[in-house]
């Protein structure tokens, strides 16, 4: 009997020993994992600090980009500008000019500038009633953004006339932009840079066609199928210009008189741009860094659409969360 008690006591002590050793091992594992996670968090923090410092130093030598965006009151406006702003907020040395087709500025746009800490200016310029698209009108009925782009040009000439360096780009609020596009803009040497644009003109991509010379590549045509006889058959998203051209050609503006599809060509001609001035970028026009995407019109129910139309004058007709969706 005493022998059996001794064996039982031995097994109890052995089991207790195993339990203690297992607990110590698990504790060591937890400590190790905590230490590794701490090191990982530290490394991520240091990486972020390093990246931010590198970007800040890099910005000191980068040509500024003036990004001009016409925009108008519609259910999707806030969503489009929020998405675009979160792209532009990651681009160093960028100045965003938003020109709103409105009588009064929308408060959410100023809030967007402040929240994303983007340098820029918010202007308002109404389109004349006889040139303004109705909700049911096709997009091509009138040239869009004429007044707003011209307002931005006036502002640049009056307020940035001392800038000797800089790139001006006209970017729609619902297009899609790769960050690398902005690196390409800064490679413009003289007057104008050009590149492919995805999903535009009924094609997967519209692009300049290049000819290789002994020293570089030159533009000798375009693949556009829609009115290819245009002097510059390319989309607004497919080029950026040196700010010096805006100052040198102080009367150059966009015009309602331009036939459908010719607004870009007529504007570039007013800047005395020739085909030989076009600088092909985006790896010799083999890469797509901008897409002419379009936000679909919201299929609002009749009472919701009426509520939206009334909201611009009677904001109290909306609930707080409804206001936040569009204002």
From TrEMBL:
<keyword id="KW-0808">Transferase</keyword>
<keyword id="KW-0812">Transmembrane</keyword>
<dbReference type="GO" id="GO:0050650">
    <property type="term" value="P:chondroitin sulfate proteoglycan biosynthetic process"/>
</dbReference>
<dbReference type="InterPro" id="IPR005027">
    <property type="entry name" value="Glyco_trans_43"/>
</dbReference>
<dbReference type="GO" id="GO:0005975">
    <property type="term" value="P:carbohydrate metabolic process"/>
</dbReference>
<dbReference type="GO" id="GO:0015018">
    <property type="term" value="F:galactosylgalactosylxylosylprotein 3-beta-glucuronosyltransferase activity"/>
</dbReference>
<comment type="similarity">
    <text>Belongs to the glycosyltransferase 43 family.</text>
</comment>
<keyword id="KW-0464">Manganese</keyword>
<dbReference type="GO" id="GO:0000139">
    <property type="term" value="C:Golgi membrane"/>
</dbReference>
<keyword id="KW-0333">Golgi apparatus</keyword>
<feature type="transmembrane region" description="Helical">
    <location>
        <begin position="9"/>
        <end position="27"/>
    </location>
</feature>
<feature type="site" description="Interaction with galactose moiety of substrate glycoprotein">
    <location>
        <position position="206"/>
    </location>
</feature>
<keyword id="KW-0325">Glycoprotein</keyword>
<protein>
    <recommendedName>
        <fullName>Galactosylgalactosylxylosylprotein 3-beta-glucuronosyltransferase</fullName>
        <ecNumber>2.4.1.135</ecNumber>
    </recommendedName>
</protein>
<feature type="binding site">
    <location>
        <position position="174"/>
    </location>
    <ligand>
        <name>Mn(2+)</name>
    </ligand>
</feature>
<dbReference type="InterPro" id="IPR029044">
    <property type="entry name" value="Nucleotide-diphossugar_trans"/>
</dbReference>
<keyword id="KW-0472">Membrane</keyword>
<dbReference type="Pfam" id="PF03360">
    <property type="entry name" value="Glyco_transf_43"/>
</dbReference>
<keyword id="KW-0735">Signal-anchor</keyword>
<keyword id="KW-0479">Metal-binding</keyword>
<feature type="active site" description="Proton donor/acceptor">
    <location>
        <position position="264"/>
    </location>
</feature>
<comment type="pathway">
    <text>Protein modification; protein glycosylation.</text>
</comment>
<dbReference type="GO" id="GO:0046872">
    <property type="term" value="F:metal ion binding"/>
</dbReference>
<keyword id="KW-1133">Transmembrane helix</keyword>
